[in-house]
Design goal:
Elements lengths: L2 E2 L8 E2 L2 E7 L5 E11 L9 E4 L4 E7 L2 E2 L5 E4 L2 E4 L5 E10 L9 E5 L2 E5 L19 E10 L5 E4 L2 E7 L4 E12 L6 E4 L2 E8 L5 E8 L8 H18 L7 E7 L6 E2 L4 E5 L12 H16 L8 E2 L5 H21 L4 H27 L11 E2 L8 H18 L1 H15 L3 E2 L1 H15 L10 H4 L5 E8 L4 E8 L6 H4 L8 E8 L8 E5 L6 E3 L1 E6 L3 E7 L6 E4 L8 E3 L4 H10 L3 H24 L6 H19 L5 H8 L4 H6 L6 H18 L1 H10 L10 H19 L5 H11 L3 H13 L5 H14 L3 H12 L6 H8 L9 H14 L1 H4 L5 H16 L1 H8 L12 H13 L6 H12 L1
Parallel strand pairs: 3-13, 19-20, 20-22, 23-25, 26-34
Antiparallel strand pairs: 1-24, 2-4, 3-4, 4-10, 5-9, 6-7, 6-10, 8-9, 11-12, 12-17, 13-16, 14-17, 15-16, 18-19, 21-22, 26-27, 27-32, 28-31, 28-33, 29-30, 29-32
Helix pairs in contact: 1-2, 2-3, 3-4, 3-5, 4-5, 5-6, 6-7, 10-11, 10-12, 11-12, 11-15, 13-17, 15-17, 16-17, 17-19, 18-19, 20-21, 21-23, 25-26, 25-27, 26-28, 27-28
The structure holds (3S)-3,7-diaminoheptanoic acid and zinc ion.
GO molecular function: aminopeptidase activity
InterPro entries: Aminopeptidase_N-like_N, Aminopeptidase_N-like_N_sf, PepN_Ig-like_sf, Peptidase_M1, Peptidase_M1_dom, Peptidase_M1_pepN, Peptidase_M1_pepN_C, Peptidase_M1_pepN_C_sf
Family: Belongs to the peptidase M1 family.
């Protein structure tokens, strides 16, 4: 069933208080819920109260203490409707849910020996009959009862009010959450855990207890998570002026979890992968992700929980904003304590990582069958809309407003937002209006009218840039267009220009700096500086620029001020100059990306049309090698940044620029380029590896992590190129590693080597042997093999039958099945279509137990129609086979039907 944003209606009743009692038992948990219900003003007297349900066993309903007469209620599989209510009453409902049978991991479920809940978006209806929508906010009191030895810890939101031992071996804990909340923020946890806790004080002096609960035996691995939480608390106070409003803030790690983590009020539940870390078992990337996700969920306490969404179409209200906040948090943490130049470079690295992710996940989404604005107009299944668009593009939209307003005005808009809406369920438009208020307090003539279109229009805008030199100054003309995408195509939607903030600068052909003076045509106001911010709000606009001479090179979208594609005719030499001299670290990286892209696309095209290498391609390759060489030798650059400069664009981004898409020839071209770079730069790469030996004491600083990243890239290229000694170096690196980043880097390098000998097998076997009892590391072992270039379906099938493969665990599925389908082009896109048939089998199989995870996997063939034959036909057949499977879930059905029809 399709739900439309425009059909929103408020719920006819208020439910100000909810008292829940749980008799917890994995086989059958009895849930008693007592709701206070009041009819909203203006609602007709006989309006029925319809409550949502899914997979519940109904027991009873009573009204003001009396069992409800059979003709006063209707119950079916998806609802309980109570008729003829007085304007105000109490309703008590009893039902039963079966956590051990719940493989969807939505609602109340078993993971390991513990019980967990996941309610966002619509999981609370799997716990009890309720108005499962974010605009119904209630104060919760929760009583949990369970066997004391099996479930010594019983947690829910808010404050622990009372703990009592019952005389039948059970105990009881009562919790009260003083903050009214929508039911998607409800949580409970029951089990046995290690607890790390610490007291801290908020800025205003209130004492709060921070707690992290994790599986018995993992206490030593929660230190980083605790530090990350403490830093999150401090950062939200210092940068946003937002304090923790609770007496205790809990995080619990679960082994089985559908996504990263969940921001339940005061009781965040996390995928263990985003909590547990020590140098032996977690990579530098894991450390950074843990800090970011802990930050993200913590920041939701204000942006999401204190102010929440009116309806699920407004999801980006909390997600885009909170991603923006966690991105800034990470950037501030990376830059902390550094001098100005290093801080700028550290921030650029974070920005680059975010752009890589946006281009790999969101740009393709915005051009495919699931394209939607950051505030969608319709959906069939809301869980399919926790997308890169809502999250990452949503964050870009917030960032553009931050760029347009500046930090101070943006923060004053944030304050206004909380002043207006604390405790409410609101819309994206309410948020933009608060920022607009702050903007107009300073610039009464400005507004965000055009800007708001980012919320209603999908697609990635393309901006064309033209520069013409006149006798005195130059004219820069920007024009924008954005294709119709997704459902827009069938609705005759009239697309309008976007408000695009574009930071630009320029350098001389010799790399020298330029100072620009720019004004919009027909306007007086002049901007001057090394960088200026242009605002494109119409289809086409021009600016006059002085300070530029004939051969100067434009530097565009510095810092990636807008999530757009730019078209400008650079020569290869101009790109090479930018790639070595652009003072803006982001733009310098971008120039390098463009060079790689040019080369790879030319190379794949030549291969697809069976041309031999042309001189033009050979020249371009020589230029790429030169620039990489210079980059490696640039001692002013830090190593994390060099690693980004040397990394090729993602397949997903490159494929978007290929017509038709040929993932096989692309994979070969990338392989060939990295091999060539490995051969040509072997000496410098060897030096990178030698310069920072692995035997020293482990150092967790970002600087040391940067060194590890570059060293691992070097090891990889050297092994790809099969350079003499490369494999021994990698083997040595593996054996002497004192941390997971080095160990995994070495193992990956070994798997890249064209010759898979005993050393490779020995390292793989050793890795499993050593870490077999640690599920998060076993995931890495599966993932690294699933994505290794030599891995085909045969190996994947063996791995599926490995005793350590656990079908019900989403992390394990992501490690093996998802990795193979998304990160192993040569294996997955086998020309006989076997990879796609495997995909279809897995989607339908997973769908029977966990539709949310299956629907994620189903997205992998979104772009089938743009592929080269015979891949295209094979993909289409695989999609059809999923669509034709009887009883496929609504989640998966939405994805495959849209892929086949849009
Ligand atoms: N809000 C949750 C996501 C829930 C997804 C439900 N399908 C995590 C987050 O964004 O912080
Ligand atoms: Zn979030």
């Amino acid at each position: 069933m399709t739900v439309y944003r425009n059909d929103y209606q408020p719920f006819p009743y208020h439910i100000p208080t909810v008292a829940l009692q749980f008799d917890l038992d994995p086989e059958a948990t009895r849930v008693t819920s007592l709701l206070s219900v009041t009819r909203r003003d203006g609602v007709a007297a006989h309006t029925p109260l319809r409550l949502d349900a899914e997979d519940l066993e109904f027991v009873s309903v009573s009204l003001n203490g009396q069992p409800c007469a059979p003709d006063r209620f209707v119950v079916d599989d998806t609802s309980l409707t109570v008729l003829d209510l007085p304007s105000s009453c109490e309703i008590e409902i009893v039902c039963i849910t079966q956590p051990a049978q719940n493989t969807s991991l939505m609602g109340l479920y078993v993971s390991g020996h513990s019980l967990f809940t996941q309610c966002e978006a619509e999981g609370f209806r799997r716990i009890t009959y309720f108005a499962d929508r974010p605009d119904v906010m209630s104060t919760y009191s929760v009583t949990l009862r369970a066997n004391r030895s099996q479930y010594p810890v019983l947690l829910s939101n808010g404050n622990l009010v009372e703990e009592t031992n019952l005389d039948d071996g059970r105990h009881e804990c009562k919790w009260h959450d003083p903050f009214p909340k929508p039911c998607y923020l409800f949580a409970l946890v029951a089990g046995e855990f290690d607890l790390r806790q610490q007291q801290t004080y908020t800025r205003s002096g209130k004492a709060v207890t921070l707690q992290i609960y994790s599986d018995p035996g993992t206490f030593d691995r929660t230190e980083w998570a605790m530090q990350s939480l403490e830093r999150s608390v401090r950062w939200d106070e210092s940068r946003f002026g937002l304090e923790l409003d609770l007496d205790r803030f809990m995080i619990v790690a679960a082994r089985d979890f559908n996504m990263g983590a969940m921001e339940n009020k005061g009781l965040n539940i996390f995928n263990a992968a985003y909590v547990l870390a020590d140098p032996e078992t977690a990579t530098d990337a894991n450390y950074q992700a843990i800090e970011a996700v802990i930050g993200h969920e913590y920041f939701h306490n204000w942006t999401g929980n204190r102010v929440t969404c009116r309806d699920w179409f407004q999801l980006s209200l909390k997600e885009g904003l909170t991603v923006f906040r966690d991105q800034e948090f990470t950037a501030d943490m990376l830059a902390e304590g550094l001098d100005e130049t290093s801080a700028a470079s550290a921030r650029a690295v974070k920005r680059i990582d975010d752009v890589i992710m946006l281009r790999a996940a969101q740009f393709p989404e915005d051009a495919g069958p699931m394209a939607h604005p950051i505030r969608p107009e319709s959906f069939e299944e809301i869980s399919n809309f926790y997308t890169a668009t809502v999250y990452e593009k949503g964050a870009e939209v917030i960032r553009m407003m931050h760029t347009l307003l500046g930090e101070q005005t943006f923060q004053s808009g944030m304050q206004e937002y909380f002043r207006r809406h604390d405790g409410q369920a609101v819309t994206c438009d309410d948020y933009v209006s608060s920022l607009e208020w702050a903007l107009q307090a300073e610039h009464p003539n400005r507004n965000l009218d055009v800007f708001r279109r980012w919320y209603s229009q999908a697609g990635t805008p393309h901006v064309n840039v033209e520069l013409s030199h006149g006798p005195e100054d130059a004219t820069l003309t920007l024009s924008q267009r954005c294709e119709m995408v997704g459902v827009e195509k069938s609705t005759g939607f009239a697309k309008q220009p976007f408000h695009i903030p574009l930071r630009i600068g320029a350098i001389g052909a010799d790399g020298s700096k330029r100072y620009l003076s720019v004004h919009a045509e027909g306007e007086q106001a002049v901007q001057t500086g090394e960088s200026v911010l242009l605002e494109l709000t119409q289809t086409q606009q021009s600016w006059r620029i002085s300070g530029l001479i004939k051969n100067d090179i434009l530097s565009l979208n510095r810092g990636f001020t807008a999530p757009i594609e730019i078209a400008y005719e650079y020569s290869n030499e101009q790109l090479a100059a930018l790639a070595q001299h652009d003072p803006d670290a982001w733009a310098r990286w971008e120039a390098m990306q463009m060079l790689y892209t040019r080369y790879l696309l030319a190379q794949t095209q030549a291969a697809d049309t069976t041309q031999n290498d042309t001189p033009a391609i050979a020249n371009l390759l020589a230029l790429v090698i030169d620039v990489c060489n210079a980059t490696l030798g640039d001692s002013k650059l830090d190593q994390a940044y060099i690693t980004r400069l040397l990394s090729l664009p993602s397949d997903k981004y490159l494929l978007q620029q290929m017509q038709p898409m040929n993932p096989l020839s692309l994979a070969r071209a990338k392989h060939q380029l990295e091999t060539t770079l490995g051969m040509n730069l072997a000496d410098q790469l060897m030096e990178c590896v030698a310069q920072s030996p692995v035997t020293q004491q482990f150092d967790a600083s970002p600087e040391a992590a940067g060194k590890r990243a570059l060293r691992n890239l070097a090891l990889g290229w050297l092994n790809l190129a099969n350079v003499e000694q490369a494999k021994s170096l990698a083997t040595h690196h593996y054996d002497s590693a004192n941390n997971m980043t080095d160990r995994l880097g070495a193992l990956r390098a070994l798997l890249l080597s064209p010759v898979r000998d005993d050393r490779v097998e020995a390292a793989l076997a050793h890795f499993y042997d050593r870490f077999q009892n640690d599920p998060l590391v076993v995931d890495k072992w599966f993932a690294i093999q699933a994505s290794a270039p030599g891995t085909g379906l045969k190996t994947v099938s063996q791995l599926l039958n490995h005793p350590a493969f656990v079908f019900r665990n989403p992390n394990r599925l992501r490690a093996l099945v998802f990795q193979f389908c998304s990160n192993n082009p040569l294996g997955f896109h086998a020309p006989d279509g076997s990879g796609y048939r495997f995909w279809a089998e897995q989607v339908t199989r997973i769908d029977q137990s966990n539709p949310e995870v299956a629907a994620r996997l189903a997205r992998m063939l979104d772009h089938w129609a743009h592929h080269i034959e015979p891949l295209k036909s094979h993909m289409q057949a695989a999609l059809k086979s999923v669509a034709d499977t009887p009883d496929i879930s609504g989640n998966t059905r939405e994805i495959v039907t849209k892929a086949l029809t849009l």
